[in-house]
Amino acid sequence: MKPLYFDTAATTAVAPEVLARMVELLGGEGAYANPSSAAHLPGQAAAAVVALARVEIAAELGCEADEVVFTSGATEANNLALRGVALAHAAQGRHLVTSVIEHKSVLACCAALQREGYEVTYLSPNSAGWVEPDAVARALRPDTLLVSLQYTNNETGVMQPIAEVADLAVQAGVLLHVDAAQAAGKFPIDLQKIPIDLLSLSAHKFHGPKGVGCLVVRNRRQLRLQPLMHGGGQEFGLRPGTLATHQIVGLSAALSLAAARRAADLAHVGELKRRFLQQLGECLPTQVHGELARSSPYIVNFSIAGIISDALINQLRSDLAIASSSACSSGAVEPSYVLRAMGIEGEPLYGAVRLSFSRDHSLAEVSAAVERIGAAVSRMKELEISEDK
Ligand code: PMP
Question: Name one GO molecular function term (predicted).
């Protein structure tokens, strides 16, 4: 029996429609030429495919086509945004504002910038899991270049107050970068309505392929960014390297599909999460982490009284693929820095697990997941009793 996969916040399967579009491009009959080979027709055909994908992505996000910079994913997009702004604008200031609950690709990039002489203010979330806009306002200084805040937290699913922070950033004249890896495709993002300067996303979080994403750079002609790499000048000089046509088309097809299905998918996963919590709560004493009313229906983070997450995940190994919030660093288990920042300690901290849903899950699978968790907890309790004897 294959474990039931409930770890879509880590990655999703490529949607069949997306896969078909990608495969079409790869073979000898596809537009496989180098999109930068402008001198010949096959190159122009490949460039047209990329151009169309760029237009489709831009239409979905409410930006201009030439504001979409393809990258290998959100990690690279986050690095390009933060480092790119910091290095290009060092003469104006050397201060950045972010939060302690960001993804490691933001935190580690900020830490590297600190080693290079930049100052970073790390904001803590409240106990509900979101960063208060007032805290952002208080952190701004005359030498602040950029605020970086995630759209949706990858561990708790809590949505951050991006619209309010965007208004604050505009008033203060600082740039705003948003890591939308857990939000893009799933929620409508309209850059015409919310003044976000830089937005990162990764295709594999919404049924596209791994290894491709983009950084949207609004007002690209005014906003200066220093590229991370040097090469052939592709992507407006911001990200060199031969464009991966099939990956780019995979990203655009997955985003378009997600947009077309968005309302139905949101309603579906909302129901999956509601039923999951209801059924689990009926059989086990559970505590949910992060404010439910503000959290993504795609993610649920919870702990079960008396249960340690790693033991549970191990017990469920062949039944259910879920994530714990802890990380293994140098052999020791480090509990989640996100939950810890929310003031969660002790049993709930060490017991926290994350389930994440997708459009492909059924209600029957959700019930099966609850049953499997219930059975695993019973086995663990029995083991404890026999060990005590
Ligand atoms: N930001 C967030 C919030 C994420 O969840 C992830 C993926 N775990 C990333 C950034 C990085 O995405 P990728 O690994 O595709 O580069």
Answer: cysteine desulfurase activity
